[in-house]
Fold each of these.
Amino acid sequence: MNIRILYFAALREALGCGEESLTLPAGVGSVGALREHLAARGEPWQRLANMKNLRAAVNQTMATPETAVAEGDEIAFFPPVTGG
Amino acid sequence: MSMFSVSVQEADFDLGAEVAALTGADRSCGAVASFVGVVRDRNDGSHVAGMTLEHYPGMTEKALADIVEQARGRWPLIGARVIHRVGPLHPGDNIVLVAVSTAHRGEAFAACEFIMDYLKTHAPFWKREDTPEGGRWVDARESDDSAMARWGDGENSPME
């Protein structure tokens, strides 16, 4: 399963990555599982596991750890928003 | 032209022109409430020389349109205009405009505040301030979450 992942703001800077395309192994089928999969890469990705209040979106809609991830999805991880 | 629109842009906006567009288009309008957010020159004890607004292109517009739709589900709005600026901004610059038009003032005040409270917690914008100590990402405030929570529903989708 191929997906696109975006990172924003302080998280993007900490990871040194704003965007990547990834082929997921079988069994990584939710936002929560994807988070664990990415964190297992070690530093600096480990901080995805430690980060409090991490937010995620799937196809530009706010998501929860249970939200399913499917072929072609655009997943985004980011800190709490601070606009306005 | 639809009386409901959202924009994400680098350019400044003209409050008077936006309000005139809302009131001029529908004579049943009896009230317009507007809010303008402005860049401050200080935050959390530091001088702020400027800031950069980052956003998530695509999702931002979608989130703002969804917030306006939620407001329309709660109050009989005649029109609404939301403009959020992105890119480099300086103290005194406008950041955000929310303007709503209704028949009477009660729903105009309420809907304007509702849209701002939801925008603060649901629209994917992030502020990075330039201070004498260097650049720093602004932390989300708990008071924004509690301001949003008083409207009842609307989870903030934390990952924890």
Amino acid sequence: MLTLAHLCKSYNSTRHILSDINFHLDAGEYVAIMGESGMGKSTLLNLMAGLETPDSGSIVIDGHNLAEMNDDQATQLRREKMGFVFQAFHVLPHLSVAQNVSLPLLLNGVSKQQARAETASILAAVGLADRAQSRPRELSGGETQRVAIARALVHRPRLLLADEPTGNLDPESADNVMRLLHGQIKQSGTTCVLVTHSTRAAATADRVLLLTTQGLIPRTLRA
Amino acid sequence: MMQNTALAFTFLLGEFRAHGKRAAIGVIAIAVGVAMGYAVHLINYAASNEFSQAVRSLMGNADLTVRGTRMGFSEQTYPLLATLPEVAVASPVVEIDAHIPQENEALKIIGIDYFRALTVQPNMLGRLAEENTDPSLGAFHADALFLSPAALTWLQLKTGDKLSVRVGMEIRQLHIAGTVPAAGAGQRIGVMDIAAAQWRFDRLGLIQRIDLKLRPGVNLAAFKNKLATLLPAGVAAITPVDSEKRAANLSRAYRVNLNVLALVALFTGGFLVFSTQVLSVVQRRSQLALLRVLGLTRASLVRWILAEGAVIGALGAAIGLLLGYTIAAAVLDYSGADLGGGYFAGVRPTVHFDAWAALIFFALGLGAALLGSLIPALETARTQPSRALKAGDEEIALQRLRSPLPALTLIFIGGALCFAGPVNELPIPGYIAIALLLIGSIALMPRLAHTVFSRLPTPWQSAPYLAITQLQGASGKASIGLSGILASFSLMAAMAIMVTSFRVSVDEWLGNMLPAQLYMRAAASGDTAYFSANDQLAILNTAGIARAEFLRTLHITLDPLRPAVSLIARPIDVANPAARLPFIGAVLPSAAENLTQPITVWASEAAADLHGLTVGKQFILPIGTQLQPVIVGGIWRDYARQHGAIVINLADYRRLTGDERVTEVGMWLNAGETATQAINNLRAVLHNNTSLDIAEPGEVRSASLKIFDRSFTVTYLLEAVAIIVGLFGIAASFGGQALARAREFGMLRHIGVTRRQIGMMLALEGALLTTLGVVAGLLLGWVIALILVRVVNPQSFHWSMNMHMPWGLLSAVALTLILTAAMTAVLSGRSAMSAQAVRAVRDDW
């Protein structure tokens, strides 16, 4: 599903962020990437999303080599095959919960009626059916992140990229969100890359990798 | 306290460092506004000061001036006054505006009695040229003329040269015997012996003025009252102060209007500061809330935000003053003091730093910026920090602006003020009404934006959906940009509608006033050229001329404290006066005229307004040497004479004055006769006079409209500056919003929105917002134009006009504005769509 080969990335030719990263992820696999701050976890996520271009190496997603794509093609790929969950939620404050969730469906050309049905379905799945018309400011942090998860999964992406999804939540909400995320991706068969500092969040993944200067190395979490 | 100040300083510095461009735009906007206002003030101040000095210089040391019409009054009055016990010295004066062939402006020639002038007008005394050895060129010689240095420079002459002047249809030569060294700088003036002036200019027995120096201890007011009973018809005594006031009144309304117009740029500058400050504090909402949580008081927070505005205002005002002074100096140096109105043509004073005005304009610049910061400062301080710390609260902050009550109150007061009369003869309530309507309408924009955008359908297509939901959900932020568009477009539309209404009305009026096929003036300037009875006969007998109507224009004084009124004597069919005059309102039915009844005259709108004349009202008209009872037969529209004109039938005028001279002729040609042939025939008949001003109606019309357009050049310029400042405001508003939405764009890029789609979304937002702003601006502009046309213009210049909409111009500007706004929105968003913006999703909201 996702293959990273000899991936290198630096900024201003002096600051080497990633060097020779190799990594493969099977379809439906859920992996957590941990690492110290500044190691390039988010950069790695952006590279996987095609939002940044690597200095060298390749990223192949579902048979598509990101390096060979232009910006529009990468955007199209993201739109159809990827979902995103951010630490700071990033839901649009001027849209209702339902409107926020239905955005990927709108972008993928799904009809309004179908989008309405699918939005209602995913909101029910994340436990927010009764908050569909609420504005984000009326929700708690945990609820807002559930909206973000619903938005990330509503169009059934092949790959979900989650960047510190529990970073802004209290432990209880964080557990609830991770439980929900895990349940949803396993149910839909979505491949997921989770970048996190939290061992509790990482523990929900099938496997955990540690990003170091030597590259991605497997890590076992203690129970 | 010290720590608090240091913290405030750090806070301020940090904000300016972070958003230097935004602060710079605010500073520039205030600077431009202050510069325009200060420059216009300095130019007008220098010009009117020069004018006053000239008046003072002409009046010399006189305690009182006895003045009649431009035609003059009998010199028999002089011995009558000179022998009064209260009078120490009486100095008779002849005033002539001499037409100089080939020159567009007349030369003012003063005829004085040198011996009397020694005491009363010492500045007017000429000095004989040292090299002058010709005894016939003594000061008392009939042809001896002394010219001021400015007049010599203007006419490119030197002492000993000859100067040609036109008297009637004749050219007469005067010898330049010396100079008038004490004349004011820039004052173009000639001085002659009074008897010589009367003789050479065919004014024997007539004088225009007697300047009086009173004996010590004479009560001026009592003596003035005594004189009123002694003076002949149409002659009045005025003090030097009144004379200066009268001179200042000539251009007062024009100057005030120009100053107000110049302040429009400052208003849009202040508004720009408001919109950038609102966006700035909305963006920093959580930072400011954090400071409140950390212990900063509400008052301190207000002071900090106001301090930002004060720094912008002070810097802008200081730069504006420097810029304004430089602009004023450059304009006075290169083109003189006339800003297009024609009031100060030929006046070339130098600029002087006016400290009081500088202080006032500095305060206005500072005040505009402080006012622009006050609302956002108060709103921020009022917000609960806990709420402000939460993401997405920005729109709630702006929702408070949706309350329509303050806006409607301002609009209501503005509307009511439109019905108030002028204050001190200036349309002050009208100006305040415009300001209140503008501010009220701007304050109404959040409500309007919410009402309109919430009713828009949301098409299920990416860019339109995102754009419209953004406008619906964040109408508060949108309305800030909208207000900028409203302010700029409404002011532009108002000026365009007013100027077009004026221009079309002038054009229609010219059509009405120019019924003949050919027009001829004795001279383009001055009051010395005229057509004598013989000339008139010759014109009537000229080959190709079928018919001619003769017209005599002169000036009379209805009120010594007001500028002179034009008296136009022309043939009027009393049975149908509307055939020659464009009346407004009722016209008195013709009555059989006889000498025992008051004769009918027709007053222009300005004459009616300024002198309280109404249809059917009887008043005393000083004409010739008598006071003639007249009745107002109708009020007619006149755009040529701002201080009023009264039309009298030429036959009545001749019967009352015995004056057969005329100054203008309208002619109808024989069938088949061309205008060129007729002009050649006329020149041949009138002594081969090549300097006669002969034109077809089309030429007069086109020349008049050219003068009209020139007089509005500065208006257009000031308006353009205000619009440019307004456009900067729109750009700053879009820029600020795009910056604030960088994370939104980042998120959208993540979920698969292309750059093009974001561009389309922004373009659509900009276009929809601008369209609403333009529609609202057009409506507001029309209302402001209505006030300008129906209130400000009649109260300032005493003329009315019909409303005409420049649809072509308005559509073109609206379309340009919509496209520009769409492009500006896209450009503003471009930087926010960069890779950095994508990384922005990692930041907190």
Amino acid sequence: MAFLEINNVTKSFSAGTAAVKEFNLHVEKGDLVSFLGPSGCGKTTTLRMVAGFEAPSTGHVSINGEDITDKPPNKRNVGMVFQAYALFPNMTVGDNIGFGLKLAKKPPEEIKQRVDEMLKLIHMPGLGDRYPYQLSGGQQQRVALARALAIRPAVLLLDEPLSALDAKIRVSLRGRNPRHPAAAWHHGDLRDPRPGRGAIHLGPYRRDERGAHGASGHTV
Amino acid sequence: MVLSFPYMFRAVDTGLRAIDVRTLTEAAQSLGAGWGTVLFRVIFPNLRVAILSGVFLTFAIVIGEFTFASLLNWPAFGPYMEYLGATRAYEPAALALVSFTLTWSLTMLIQYIGRGRGTETQVAGTR
């Protein structure tokens, strides 16, 4: 049994077309998987179903053997970095990163330590007192990443996570990946360098297409 | 209520449109927040300026309102001002000054509470 399992998941929206159709994916702990494909092929929808923001029309999602298909997003321990970053504008960088830890009722010293550690990881030590609007796009994106990593999620989902980062930081962050159990990337640059692992190509779904293709994945 | 509702509604509605409520809610949820936390720690703080401007508009309307206030059969500021203006010679001028001072100081108070980086909120994208 794989750590993250997506079994036979289909998502159709009201318009009648399936965004994701009979999708299967098994990801082992520590694996890094990227979804590649043209826009509209269901990459984001798949990630959102793992995060719990969309309920699959049919099929099941499980993490570590536990079926989480009907679990609300705040109980899943799944970290997500959003395409639009979605930092909380009313909080400083430090508060943004520490938000999840605070909700988990961690002691303040531990939160501070973890926040400092995260700031160092994203090459922004000492910027914890800034507000999101005082940061550049790339810095905001790094804070969003740190915020998702700070809670040590079981699965880390990244929706176009490094689009605003420069190449140097991309490479230095990539070295960090194996620490996290399972991650779904969404960007070609981040394919797992280990041979035989990495990208899942999602085909564009066409209504007239025969068979269970849609957005079909293969375990890698 | 009837008079001030549209003002409050418009102010809060504009504020809600200015932030990406959905993505912020999802971000908070993925970090473990329940609906109460999302509402009080994420949505309301970002709506502070909008709510305050609604409060200001509502306050200005309520303090200057006469028609409804006089129908209320209850002591209210508008009717009292009118009554004083009709019956006394010098006191209305003093009361007018008092009402100006009251309105202005409360406006300043609201401005003071809502000061700061309200106009620079940014939710997504690059600058």
